[in-house]
Write a structure and sequence with these properties.
Pathway: Cofactor biosynthesis; (R)-pantothenate biosynthesis; (R)-pantoate from 3-methyl-2-oxobutanoate: step 1/2. It catalyses: (6R)-5,10-methylene-5,6,7,8-tetrahydrofolate + 3-methyl-2-oxobutanoate + H2O = 2-dehydropantoate + (6S)-5,6,7,8-tetrahydrofolate. This protein is α/β, with parallel strands linked by helices. It has one domain: Phosphoenolpyruvate-binding domains (TIM Barrel). About 40% of the residues lie in helices and about 15% in strands. It has 11 helices and 8 strands. An 8-stranded parallel beta barrel has the order 1-2-3-4-5-6-7-8, surrounded by 6 helices. Helix 5 crosses helix 6 and helix 8 runs parallel beside helix 9. The longest helix has 17 residues. It binds 3-methyl-2-oxobutanoic acid (KIV) and sodium ion (NA). The site of sodium ion has 4 residues, from loops.
């Protein structure tokens, strides 16, 4: 299908109205995201948010394809982007190409995202030269939690130069945009000014070319932890808790189902006006 937003359109949004992005993992949520956002990211955060995994490291290609298909079905005007899961691209360009092509072909998403800066530049160039639009992801890269030693801010003090070098490397390799995760706001602002591709911030301050959040975080549905950069725009977790508590109480007290939720044994005789 011809979409109204494609990677080239995102690239053209550099420096303009902020690019609005959220994650989505299911068709119904993708439909709501699609109505309001430019990009619906099928993030590998799906492992933690929907499947209760302790990190994103256990997320598989099959999970990404299944959720990717669901999101693609819900997107009419926005652009779905699908995360490459841990272990599916780090070995080298050929492995990355094989799995990126499979993700795109089997989910229908027109672009992929992968984590890593300068060390992934060769892979990003290999993909982009062969028809795979790549969104890069630098700063805090959660798939590297075990080597980074936690989910800390990346790019303070002596680290700033290497994050800037990562940004320049992924741009030179052909990425159409780059996610900056948990990067100090001054550095994110300098990267945004320096690059000609859009920066999409998460915990990276106001100066990025766009913003992204995990949709379940901003809806108040995923409450396991609450990073400083998440603003809660809803309390859907609380609303669901109240609704389920009310249902449980009504089942126990036999208040539910009421007569209107049940079926009579005999159909009422059809009168002139039944
Ligand atoms: O997996 C994810 O949700 C992400 C975004 C938060 C950038 O990578
Ligand atoms: Na991700």
């Amino acid at each position: 299908p011809v979409r109204s937003v494609l990677p080239a359109d995102i690239l053209a949004r550099k420096g303009g109205t902020p690019i609005v992005c959220l994650t989505a993992y299911t068709t119904p949520v993708a439909r709501i995201v699609d109505a309001h956002c430019d990009i619906a990211l099928v993030g590998d955060s799906v492992g933690m948010v929907l499947h209760g995994m302790p990190s994103t490291l256990g997320v598989t290609m099959e999970m990404m394809i299944l959720h990717g298909r669901a999101v693609v079905r819900g997107c009419q005007k926005s652009m779905p982007v699908i995360d490459m899961p841990f272990g599916s691209y780090e070995e080298g360009p050929a492995q990355a190409y094989r799995n990126a092509a499979r993700l795109m072909a089997e989910s229908g998403a027109p672009a992929v995202k992968l984590e890593g800066g300068a060390h992934m530049a060769e892979t990003i160039a290999f993909l982009t030269k062969r028809g795979v639009p790549v969104m890069a992801h630098i700063g805090l890269t959660p798939q590297s939690v075990n080597t980074l030693g936690g989910y800390k801010v990346v790019g303070r003090d002596g680290e700033a130069d290497s994050v800037m070098a990562d940004a320049e490397a992924v741009q030179a390799a052909g990425a159409f945009s780059v996610v900056l995760e948990k990067v100090p706001e001054g550095l994110a602002s300098r990267i945004t000014q320096r690059l000609s591709i859009p920066t999409i911030g998460i915990g990276a301050g106001l100066r990025c070319d766009g913003q992204i959040l995990v949709v379940d975080d901003m809806l108040g549905l995923f409450t396991e932890f609450r990073p400083k950069f998440v603003k809660r725009y809803g309390e859907l977790g609380r609303a669901a808790d109240e609704a389920i508590a009310a249902y449980a109480a009504e089942v126990r007290s036999r208040a539910f189902p009421a007569p209107e939720h049940a079926f009579a044994d005999v159909l009422p005789t059809k009168g002139p006006k039944s």
